[in-house]
Amino acid sequence: MLKAKAQKYYKITAYGCQMNEHDAEVLAGQLQEQNYLPTDDEATADLIILITCAVREHAEQRVYGKIGELYRLKQENPNLILAVGGCMSQQMEVAKKMKQRFPYLDIIFGTHNLVNFPELLRAASDGQETVLEILDKEGSLVEQLPRVRQDGLKAWTTIMYGCNNFCTYCIVPYVRGRERSRQPASILAEIEDLVSRGYQEVTLLGQNVNSYGKDLHDDYDFAALLRAVNDTGINRIRFMTSHPKDISPRLITAMAECENVMEHLHLPVQSGSSRILQSMNRRYTRERYLELVREIRTAIPDIALTTDIIVGFPGETEQDFEDTLSLMEAVRYDAAFTFAYSPRGGTPAAKMLEQVADAVSKERLQRLNELQARISMERNQELISSEQQILVEGPSKNDPSRLTGRTRGNKLVHFVGSEHLIGKIVRVRITQAQTWNLLGELI
Ligand code: SF4
Q1: Residue 146, in any domain of the structure
Q2: Within a domain: 127
């Protein structure tokens, strides 16, 4: 049993991607059922959970720094429970290292055992030793876990877990397991519940949403799910992430036909060189990717496209990098998330010879970012004088006298308007373009 105390407080910090944010919501839901309440103040928390990311070394270093920092709180309050979960601790060798280096951690848990967290918490409250539980295999999906959502306007709904693709630089298939799709009925019930509670927007999440349903019976695929979500009446539907090799003509048609599916697609290309794409095990070529972009733009002409790109992948020559620059010019993305390659232990790319020197990667990253900034600005300028539908999210962070919200294409727009518009969808005319956002006026 948990020690009796009238009220306990928890603080969860999630690093990395939306899957971790989702896991944080699930953990919060379980904790609130255990009479815990959230707090932003670590000093008053009875339980602090870090949900870690293993994708980049920088994120790992931040986590180690943070665990080190928490030692002081643990000394001041020996009853404080410190827990570390997520993709770093899913790797058994990393988890063991953490246990050794930070013996004051109470719980180390992986990505497959969120559902057991209350039991781990009980064990940690009763014992002295670090409770370490890392499940090797993903269990069957547990539906209907209670969740606490952060925002009353936009929600994430995970539709599938894991990934089967084994891109050579990526740790996800090792730490999140194979692809498992949630049942459509359960996803739809969750979204209907969101609609009934006034949510305006849902983002369907998975490492590779385009292969949703491949593990389900009766030919139900992502296109079918998208149409069914559209029928729930939720006003805005987004999804991520899409692997280019799995985008089907059926999906493009569904996107074009469903009124509430937003005109935005995040389509990670990673490199513009077919040779590097092969070495990354991406299973498409530069030519196929460009053809796909043409097919998508033919069906949905005003779609906004964003991407992820890695520079300095092992073996990347100047010519390969220039292929990436020319692909960026050819596609004219609205925005790109760009990264310098950093090797992840346990992935095939980390063992590849011909690692690119850091200085070279950094210089390439800078050239790539400069090019994207120019293109983003040009794409935004094309929107001047256009009329956009904006979901109003709240006061602008930089200028509280303005409101802020996103277009259907996911662009941030600031405009003057009264607070009663927050949570509504309004029409705005774009008056000015900046590189990463737009200014407009209410119509
Ligand atoms: S598609 Fe590739 S990069 Fe994305 S999660 Fe799967 S293995 Fe990682």
Answers
A1: no
A2: yes
Q: Which residues contact 68 (CB under 8 A, 6 or more apart)?
A: 102
**Residue 410's domain spans which residues?**
387-442
The span from the CA of 282 to the CA of 271, in Å, is 10
| Same domain membership, residue 213 and residue 359 | yes
Atom number, ligand 1, closest to the C-alpha of residue 270: 3
pLDDT at position 61, please? 84
Residue 405 within any structural domain of the chain: yes
Establish whether residue 437 lines the binding site of ligand 1, counting it when its CB lies within 6 angstroms of any ligand atom: no
Which tokens hold the place of 278? 């092969």
Among residues 329, 350, 381, the one where a domain terminates is 381
Is any atom of ligand 1 closer than 6 Å to the C-beta of 166?
yes
Residues 367 and 391 in one domain: no
> Which ligand 1 atom sits nearest the alpha carbon of residue 281?
2
CA of 250 to the centre of ligand 1 (A): 22
Question: Which is the closest atom of ligand 1 to the Cα of 171?
Answer: 8
Q: Which of 69, 100, 133 is at the close of a domain?
A: 133
User: Is 292 found in the same domain as 426?
Assistant: no
Distance CA 359, CA 344 (A): 19
Digit-coded pLDDT (tens) for 69-128: 999 998 888 889 999 998 888 888 888 888 889 989 999 988 777 777 888 888 887 766
Nearest CA to ligand 1 atom 2: 167
Name the pLDDT band for 374 (thresholds 50, 70, 90).
very high
CB contact set of 89 (below 8 Å; sequence gap of 6+): 52, 95, 98, 108, 109, 110, 134
- The answer to whether 426 touches 392, Cβ cutoff 8 Å, is yes
* Residue 66 CB contacts under 8 Å (≥ 6 apart), including other chains: 13, 50
Contact call for residues 319 and 274 (beta carbons, < 8 A):
no
Is it the case that residue 228 has pLDDT exceeding 70? yes
Structure tokens at 328: 């960026």
Indicate whether 117 and 162 sit together in one domain: no
Nearest alpha carbon, ligand 1 atom 1:
165
Please indicate whether residue 210, judged by its CB atom, sits closer than 6 Å to ligand 1.
Answer: no
